[in-house]
Amino acid sequence: MSRRKKKSLFTHKKASKPKCTTGMPTDSEWKSMPDFASFVVFDEKGSPHTFSVKDTAFILPHGVLPGKLYDATVYWIGKIKQIRARNEEDVWALVQWFWSPQEVNSVIKSFDISGCGQYERIKSDYYDYVSSECFCDHATVMRYDERAIDQQEFAKDYFYCRFDLEYRARKILPNVTRSACCCGVSYNPDRDPVMHFCPRPACRAAYHQECLQRPTKRLNAAARARKFLESWPDTDEKLTIEDLVDSRPSRKRRKGLESSISDPLEQFPAELVRMAQQQIVKGVQAGGVVGNVRAVVAARQLIYCSLLDGSSLPTDWKDKIKVIGDSERKSSPVFVCPQCQSLI
């Protein structure tokens, strides 16, 4: 995935007098106000910035003075649901808020903020009317599903969202324990150096190194790499590479190719095999927030499907195994998944 250049927050053009004198609209007044698709905010240089319905934006918090630039984490973040106005200078937006972990903890005391990163936000079902003068820039909040094996990668300084807040019910969805380590503590991308991920369908979880056990049987590097690859994301069965080849109907086996090689992996590009044999990891010292989950899983799936049905690799296989940062990561200690006992 190509990295997008982050936009800089802008400062507002100073006004000689306040444009809004009547205050926030009431619910009844809001219903009577005309509806618009977008509005424009001018920065201190006079450059226009358009905000539209469905845009996510940085919003100036109460008590924070305009005219200065702050760290991005200082600003509130909200998604524009509707735009209405009393007149062309008195424009308001109905905003759905992304809450900070600290804000969520203020209403749900059991929510553990120690498992959250500084760029983490929780999407709430809480709405407010916000003046257009409070909008500072467009924002991007990446959705992050820790159990997803095709999770899109994003840079470590991107905002992301793992959970939703049902404000009235005082409920967090999905349940935090769904993606937590076996110790019950959630992954903190700002703190945890290396998390080991098991891609098997019944597992799909990441674990702290200190919560895992080492394998009892010692294997050489080649054997370990093969065991990593055989932790297939498509099945919970403990199938070896040879099991997959032998399970195919004979008519689907490639004529002449497999009979001439001793190892079925030799038929695949070395770059693909190297990626598939990597440990799946994420963390401060392991490739960032998302890590190499998507790329390594894709490599294993390509090999699995080809071995299972005898098909050729797709022409775009290289695009499927691209990863942000170094594709060749330093190896970590070998551990055993606490659920399926596969090497991770």
Task: Name some characteristics of this structure.
single chain, 344 residues, alpha+beta, 3-stranded antiparallel β-sheet, 17% helix, disordered N terminus
Give a short summary of the structure.
The protein has 344 residues and is α+β, with helices and mostly antiparallel strands. The chain contains 7 helices and 15 strands. Strand 2 and strand 3 (48-52) form a beta hairpin.
Question: Can you offer a commentary on this structure?
Answer:
With 344 residues, this protein is of the alpha+beta class. The protein is built from seven helices and 15 strands. Strands 1, 4, 5, 6, 7, 8, 11 and 12 form an eight-stranded mixed β-sheet that branches. The chain has a three-stranded antiparallel β-sheet with strand order 14-13-15, with no helix packed on it. The longest helix is centred in the last third of the chain and has 17 residues, at 293-309. It starts with 26 loop residues before the first helix and ends in a 24-residue tail after the last helix. The model is unreliable at 1-7, 14-20 and 255-259 (pLDDT under 50).
The helix tally amounts to 7
Biggest pleated sheet: 8 strands, mixed
What radius of gyration results from the CA coordinates? Answer: 25 Å
Query: What order do the SSEs take from the amino end to the carboxyl end, as H and E?
Result: HEEEEEEHEEEEEEEEHHHEHH
Helix content estimate: 10-25%
Average predicted local confidence, pLDDT: 89
Low-confidence stretches: 1-7, 14-20, 255-259
Structural class: alpha+beta
What portion of residues belong to β-strands?
Answer: 15-25%
Which descriptor suits the 3D outline?
Answer: elongated
> Total number of β-strand segments?
15
Distance between termini? 25 Å
- Oligomeric state of shown chains: single chain
